[in-house]
Amino acid sequence: MIEDGKPIFLQIAESVEGAIVDGSLAEESQAPSTNELAAFHRINPATAAKGIAMLTEKGVLYKRRGIGMFVAEGARARLLGERRDAFADRYIDPLLAEARTLGLGPDDLAALIRDRAAASTDTEGTSR
What we know:
By secondary structure, the chain is mainly α. The chain contains five helices and two strands; from the N terminus they run αααββαα. A hairpin with a 3-residue loop joins strand 1 and strand 2 (68-71). The longest helix is centred in the C-terminal third of the chain and has 28 residues, at 75-102. The protein starts with 7 loop residues before the first helix and ends in a 6-residue tail after the last helix. The model has no long low-confidence stretch (mean pLDDT 93).
């Protein structure tokens, strides 16, 4: 899971966020401890703690004194919103810029997307 080029604490935070988004870590459930994360990923507990602290500062996790860290209510919706915004920045904005260059309007783009989605569904079982 640990990949080169990205700080490990960020990868830890993204891993926990991913578990929240996909539902495997539900709101109000206990999050893995820094020691559990450190042991699983074979990293320094301080590095795992930095990732957890980042999520606490964002309001995704909160601490129950003497018990551990828990997923905050509304964390999944907040993370989904952040991911939608990042998706738009990374993919939609460049798509719209290229569409303008090609003279394509919103209806043209929607038709292209529908066509590609249908073709992708028709060839299900093969990667596209």
